[in-house]
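Risk register update: the risk that structure generation would not scale has been downgraded. Supporting records follow, first protein first.
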Amino acid sequence: MTDEPHQVTCCIAGGGPAGIMLGFLLARAGIAVIVLEKHRDFLRDFRGDTIHPSTLEIMHELGLLETFLARPHQELRELRGIVGDSEIKLADFAHLPTRCRFIALMPQWDFLNFLAEAGSRFPGFHLGMESEVTDLVEEAGRIVGVRVRTPDGTFEIRADLVVGADGRHSLVRERAGLRVNNLGAPIDVLWMRLSKSPGDPSQSAGRINYGRLLVMLDRGDYWQCAFVIRKGGFDAIRERGIELFRDEIVRIAPFLRDRVAELREWDDVKLLTVTVDRLQRWWRPGLLCIGDCAHAMSPIGGVGINLAIQDAVAAANILAVPLRNGRLTDADLEAVQRRRTLPTRLIQAIQVAVQERVLDRVLGSDKPITAPWPLRLFNHLPWLARIPARLVGLGFRPEHVRSPSAQS
């Protein structure tokens, strides 16, 4: 960090999808921006790895899609659920009005490294790793910068705009005193990986039965698995022992019997504490929050990354010109929230409804289940699968790149 600027036009706290994408877009528009990431690298397991068609469309608009898809990834063209003994196609992306009619599965660190490399081609883009934002700098009621701790010491970075993109446990929104509405989540998720065998099912799928829900994503040579549990139930599961937990996985997915022993100890299982919340106001003078910092999403649908990317694109569309011209106003910050509030509220409402009306009931019974008739209709009326595909693949009000490029 010793070579990084201490005065920039925009300082972004958090090097996740929202922060890196916004940093790239602003640098592309000729704006001096620094993204601060507290970790040494992006290499962490069990972060969201789904890149949805809406995000792939943005990559196309930026001229990056072909290079991006040249990197190792898997393509998920439909979503299937196995409810009791019934297999149901829940979402079919084949009819989306996008160039990529699939979800790309790629480790998030590869996605972030790709965006960081793309941003590095612009002189205004700076990425500070091992740079932890510890506080905000405020003068006369306006946020004018941040305090940063690095291996080289602690110092201030001044900026016309500070962006909080530091996730659901955001220090930025805490220090800013922004009020959070907690929408509730009755579930948590246990993440793990299990190897694949030649005789395994060919499709990624969610499996629901016996009061258990297991989602399995095909990652090439292994399955990335999400085991849904009741909120706060992990301690009780641990007390019962890893052997009983393996048995629960086998009960819902018997073909995994020969490899659940790969879960040798609880260190092989990672807890994701699910939170669904939303800031009442996403901004203060000199400060804007986006992504999970503004609205933590449930893992249902895997849309969190893509909502964060949509926030970043909308923010760049609205803020790039005012920032570049030195004319940023509070009205510009409010416009970002106004643009992104409705799609966020609608997606969160759907997630909360699924949590409360489906998952909470499923986890409340240990008996075998049969697929309810509304789900069975999907097998008789295949066009129904287009509706969830649009909600998951595009969401509400998908954004398009309209921020300027300094190279054009």
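Supporting record for the second protein:
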Amino acid sequence: MDRLIYTALTSMNAAMNRQRAVANNLANASTPGFRGEIFAVTSATLKDGSIEARALAKGNVRGADMTTARINTTGQPLDLAVQGDALLAYQSPEGGEFYSRRGDLRVTATGVLENGEGLAVLGVGGGPITVPQGFRISIGEDGSVLATDPAAPNVPAEAVDQLKLVSPEGTMLAKGIDSFLKVPGGGVLPPDPTARVTSGALEGSNVETAKTLVDMIDAQRAFEQRARIIKTARDLDEASSRLMSMR
């Protein structure tokens, strides 16, 4: 009986984790460049050396759906959509690198180029990109960050840095609770010199709202089914106790 309850309880935890992942996908259905989380449940068996005593369900986010989403034209010079499979490199709060397709860029009061979440964009040199104050900024097709002095409109734009565009091909990526992609163990992805971007456009989220709503209902029902199993186990245990007391 305890094995039935134990298995059902771990399945309930997995169902709750699935609901969290689905809710996060739904909350980011309109976030630029968002990649939907892929949730999977695996079985794990506890062994004492002689017998497989209990089996539990472990459900976690295993990765991200890297399907390309729709590109929407915005006309904003600092909005960009990454072509192909390349990713933009951002500086994590801990000082490392993580990656995203989100390209709604802006310049802070201190001249740092960042995205809509306030994360600094990394250049090819590995550091945050800083642009001259008061200059008009644009992004070239190869990721070059171009600055034009408004006081000298006839002077060609000068490249002050270049976006670090990286290739995820052949590298395992993990998706954190912050929704960014990371290389497990603190590694970094190699630069992709062939990567290109489209300025004045943003890639949307690849989350399908209707399908995600169905997944949410399915996850809720799965949780309720596990709860009923525990109730059934309790009823069986109480019935067994009554039978024993009649002897």
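The radius of gyration is 25 Å. On this basis the risk owner (M.S.) recommends closing the item.
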